[in-house]
């Protein structure tokens, strides 16, 4: 919410989505947000693919989406317990498909042009810092995504 308020006058007027813990997005909401966006930001706990139905994602066509930023793989005690319970009902192959590289491949096959994603688990604080750097670099300074990723790698 702080990021949205800070960059409100730049581009965020056109942003739509689910903010905070108001509710868990339905599959229909995920699909609507993904198919109607030019850029998509996911900032959430655990794996992005654990929040969306795989069979629906692979059937989607998302050519308008130029960029997806996945600031996922954050873990808390509660999120780890929730994902562990959920994973019990999944095959090893399904869990493997939810890994960062496989997620990027699937999103690319649906038509997404660029994907920026975490490669390993991180803390809430580290992802908050990444989001602040992304927002400042992309929205305020006007750097390219490549320049912004390079800054994050340092």
From TrEMBL:
What Gene Ontology biological process does one annotation of this record name?
A: cilium movement involved in cell motility
Q: Name the coiled-coil region(s).
A: none
Q: Which domain of life is it from?
A: Eukaryota
What InterPro entries is this protein classified in? CFAP46 (IPR039586)
Q: What is this protein called?
A: CFA46 protein
């Amino acid at each position: 919410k702080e990021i949205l308020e800070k960059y409100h006058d730049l581009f965020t007027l056109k942003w739509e989505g689910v903010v905070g813990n108001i509710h868990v997005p339905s599959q229909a909401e995920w699909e609507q947000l993904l198919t109607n966006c030019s850029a998509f930001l996911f900032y959430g706990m655990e794996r992005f693919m654990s929040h969306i139905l795989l069979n629906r994602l692979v059937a989607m066509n998302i050519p308008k989406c130029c960029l997806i930023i996945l600031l996922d793989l954050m873990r808390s005690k509660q999120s780890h317990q929730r994902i562990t319970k959920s994973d019990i009902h999944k095959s090893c192959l399904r869990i493997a498909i939810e890994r960062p590289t496989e997620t990027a491949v699937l999103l690319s096959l649906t038509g997404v042009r660029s994907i920026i994603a975490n490669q390993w688990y991180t803390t809430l604080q580290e992802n908050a810092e990444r989001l602040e750097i992304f927002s400042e670099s992309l929205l305020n300074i006007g750097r390219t995504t490549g320049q912004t990723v390079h800054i994050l790698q340092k």
